[in-house]
Write a structure and sequence with these properties.
The chain is mainly beta. The protein contains two helices and 41 strands. Helix content is about 5%, strand content about 50%. The model has no long low-confidence stretch (mean pLDDT about 90).
Length: about 475
């Protein structure tokens, strides 16, 4: 005679409106099968299923999982009673270009969804879209890999070697190794507009005009509300955090957030860029303005013919580039003289970056566009001669990587390879910290390490550790669990 096992479900939430967490955790036991679903409140979340040898072992495993979460502050809740975090997507329009000629586009990659995120380094081009896809390409447009993230990508930022994707679900993912990890969780009451990371410290600007600063251990440091709302710009360096919003640009001291200066701009800030001694604010009032980092004084104004969605410079600010709402891209010299204006052929540039005489644009139709910004190519384009645009296609077997969300997702090794570094997860004052075990390191320093895979007493092998100016180590390369 067979019996039917009862199905039991435990649903928990952790929500701290001022402190960052806004998550759910659900455990379902169906006979010998335990299904765990978790993620941001209001989202579908991710699911893991495990089958045990007996029903008793399944129930015991489920009780352990629930107990662990309750000890971390989760509490029983009713699904659907709490609203999901607010998400604002930039509402943009893109009119046809009024330029007389089209830019010399070398290649174009259509991501399949509206996109804002871009980063270009020595080896790769990165583009992230609102479908949660981040693609890497080489400089000639060949697609190398895809990262599949759980929510729309707001922006991509680099902090030295490390590449981060800020997503609509409030999670910032580290994409520096093949397996992406959740590095930061942003408070649920922060409607993210943009972010930057400097020396492991995360700076977030939001719809309300706030600036929120989170340290390398994903812990809130300070926040300030600027004079204007809709803060689309945040850039950071050793001197300050530069916050652009509807009322201009405000600079804050990195340590503590004291206001250093505030400068009204000509129109609300829609995008920002920085060089060593200046920040650049693209505004809704058809200009890019260069501000001194020391004083906030406006040094040069670069006049465009429409609202400026994005801007960038060549090294040292020798050339200044801007993309407007009418599908045009501009180039100015350092003193503000317009050198050229050309149509993009692919919508308006929502983000851009210049590198080695090429201008890379992410446009309103979700394309990553590579423009030849060399003098000869631009001159020929102004006369009507441009290369045939090469549309990049996805490879048939494209490597795809999804985030690691549990220890089980991490590869294991039975011993540390030569030259690798061993770290250990320890409990300190109710928090899980990671310290170095290998010789030659300061064992009092914390290691910035993915929270989702921390387990008390567990040891991990990492390819390398790099010291940060903030007095902690950062992981470079892959992470493996040491058996």
């Amino acid at each position: 005679m067979s019996t039917v096992s009862a199905v039991s479900t435990t649903y928990l939430e952790l929500s701290q409106e001022g402190g960052g967490a806004h998550k759910f955790y659900e455990v379902t036991v169906d006979g010998r099968v335990v299904t765990v679903r978790y993620g941001r409140i209001g989202a579908a979340g991710q699911t893991q299923t495990t089958t045990f040898a007996t029903e008793d072992k399944a129930r015991a495993a489920a009780e352990r999982k629930v107990g662990e979460k309750v000890r971390k502050g989760y509490a029983p809740a009713i699904r659907g009673q709490r609203a999901p975090r607010a998400v604002t997507r930039r509402q943009v329009s893109s009119a046809p270009s009024t330029a007389r000629a089209v830019a010399p586009v070398l290649w174009r990659f259509r991501t399949g969804s509206a996109a804002f995120g871009i980063h270009v380094d020595d080896e790769r081009c990165w583009v992230g879209n609102q479908a949660g896809d981040v693609y890497t390409l080489d400089h000639e447009g060949a697609v190398l890999a895809r990262f599949s993230l759980p929510d729309g990508v707001k922006c991509l930022v680099a902090d030295d070697f490390w590449i981060y994707a800020g997503c609509d679900n409030g999670t910032v993912y580290d994409l520096s190794s093949k397996l992406p990890f959740a590095a930061y969780d942003i408070a649920a009451d922060v409607d993210i507009f943009w972010l930057d990371i400097h020396e492991g410290v995360l700076d977030v600007s939001d719809r309300q005009g706030r600036l929120t600063v989170i340290d390398h251990e994903d812990e809130h440091q300070w926040s300030r509300r600027s004079q204007g709302e809709h803060a689309w710009m945040v850039r950071a360096d050793d001197r300050a955090v530069y916050h652009g919003h509807l009322r201009g640009v405000t600079a804050y001291a990195p340590d503590g957030g004291g206001e250093l200066w505030h400068t009204p701009t000509k129109g609300g800030v829609l995008f920002g860029w920085q060089e060593r001694d200046a920040v650049y604010a693209g505004t809704a009032h058809r200009v890019v303005q260069r501000l001194s980092k020391d004083t906030g004084a406006i040094e040069v104004t670069y006049a465009c013919d429409g609202p400026v969605y994005s801007c960038a410079t060549s090294p040292g600010g020798r050339f200044v580039f801007a993309g407007d709402a009418a599908s045009s891209v501009y180039c100015f010299d350092r003193e503000g003289r317009r050198l050229w204006k050309l149509g993009t052929g692919s919508g308006s540039a929502l983000s851009m970056q210049y590198r080695d005489e090429r201008l890379y644009l992410v446009t309103t139709d979700g394309s990553l566009v590579c423009v030849d910004a060399g003098e000869a190519a631009v001159s020929a384009a102004q006369q009507g001669t441009v290369p045939a645009v090469r549309d990049v296609k996805l490879a048939a077997a494209l490597p795809t990587y999804a985030p690691a969300t549990a220890v089980a997702a991490v590869a294991t090794v039975d011993r540390a390879p030569a030259g690798a570094v061993v770290v250990e997860c320890v409990q300190e004052s109710g928090r899980l910290r990671v310290h170095v075990v290998s010789d030659g390191y300061d064992t009092s320093w914390n290691v910035q390490f993915p929270r989702a895979i921390r387990e008390p007493g567990a040891r991990y092998v990492v390819d390398a550790l790099h010291p940060s100016a903030g007095g902690f180590y950062r992981v470079r390369g892959d992470i493996r669990r040491l058996l």
